[in-house]
Amino acid sequence: MKKLLLPLFTVSLLLVSCSDDDSSPMNMEPTPVEPNPTPAQELKLFTSSNTTGQISFTDLLATNPSSKSFTVSGTDSDGIFYDPFKDQVILASRSNNRVEAYNGLRTAIISSASSLDLTFSSASDFSNAREIAVTSDKVVVAQDQSAANGNTSRFYVYQRNNSGFSLVNTYTVDIKLWGIHIEGNTMYAIADNTSDLVVYNNFFNNIDGNISASKRVTIEGLTRTHGITYSPQDNVMVLSDVALASSATDGGLVIINNFTSVLNATNNMGTIAMNNQVRIYGPNSLLGNPVDVAYDHVTNKIFVAERANGGGQVLEFSFPTSSGDFAPISNRTEAGVTAVYLLRR
């Protein structure tokens, strides 16, 4: 449930995710000049919860960063994204079974508002959403199989405009979906209840119906994947391992450097060996059920939505150069946290 992922001083949009991750959103119409434009350098963290009906925002470049929470329309949200050009938060609502857009975050922060007003939403097309991925004007929702949806896992592809979300494609897959990351026209997805990573090339070229993976690989030593994010800037893949859902102490992170080379060198249905991984596991890490991850390629920090420890925590790690049981450099309690998204621009 992953980045939250260039030069620092650029006016181009740089996005690092989850769930997460995601390519830069296309500004779908000329953006008016803001009376108080945002700085060219931003580093902001967004999270959602499946218990509180709130999302959180943290300006990581503030002198003393602190999170601000806002109430949204549904209790359970799993998947979050922020578009700074439109000042728009996008959520996958599991309570309402729809994609939701909330405009005006900056105004809400300035006015110390406690809630965000729903601007528009999709129809209730899916159920049991687990993540979203956004690229250009497309929003992809991962529906995990459940009794409510006939035990069917699907990708729902929406086109986003200034007033709504239009469903344009539905793709049925033969794996249980959780975390997803879109990079251009390539979809990376985890196969829940396994240790496998699945790749769908030419993702948006598919027509409605069943689609098959281009490649599936097993991550050696990983028990159950959930969160996923990829950074093309430094070719790093980060995966989370929730291991046993009932345990709050057995989770971990798997980092794969030179990812595309490693993936290309691994046969379909092959295994990415542990000697191609850097791993964070152990009691000091506070990783029990890390359900989503985000990564910043500039500071090399990893942000984790940890669902089990303390009822939910947001953890921050320095990028490891070797495997070990490393403690987070910061952690804060956030009840029911399920998704984490990082914006850098």
Structure description:
With 345 residues, the protein is mostly beta strands. The protein has helices spanning 105-110, 259-264; strands spanning 14-16, 43-49, 54-59, 67-71, 77-83, 88-93, 98-103, 120-121, 129-135, 138-143, 153-160, 165-173, 177-183, 186-191, 196-200, 209-210, 215-219, 225-231, 236-241, 252-256, 271-272, 278-281, 290-296, 301-306, 313-318, 330-333, 337-344. The strands form six sheets. A five-stranded antiparallel beta sheet has the order 1-27-2-3-4, with no helix packed on it. Strand 2 (43-49) and strand 3 form a beta hairpin. Mean pLDDT is 91; it is low at 1-17 and 21-40.
Distance separating the two termini = 23 Å
Indicate the proportion of strand residues: 35-45%
Physical arrangement of strands within the biggest beta sheet: 1-27-2-3-4
Share in helix: under 10%
Largest sheet: 5 strands, antiparallel
The counted number of beta strands is 27
Which characteristics define this entry?
345 residues; mainly beta; 3% helix
In summary, what is this structure?
The protein is mainly β. It is built from 2 helices and 27 strands.
Topology:
Layout: E1 14-16, E2 43-49, E3 54-59, E4 67-71, E5 77-83, E6 88-93, E7 98-103, H1 105-110, E8 120-121, E9 129-135, E10 138-143, E11 153-160, E12 165-173, E13 177-183, E14 186-191, E15 196-200, E16 209-210, E17 215-219, E18 225-231, E19 236-241, E20 252-256, H2 259-264, E21 271-272, E22 278-281, E23 290-296, E24 301-306, E25 313-318, E26 330-333, E27 337-344
Parallel strand pairs: 12-16, 17-21
Antiparallel strand pairs: 1-27, 2-3, 2-27, 3-4, 5-6, 6-7, 7-8, 9-10, 10-11, 11-12, 13-14, 14-15, 15-17, 18-19, 19-20, 20-22, 23-24, 24-25, 25-26
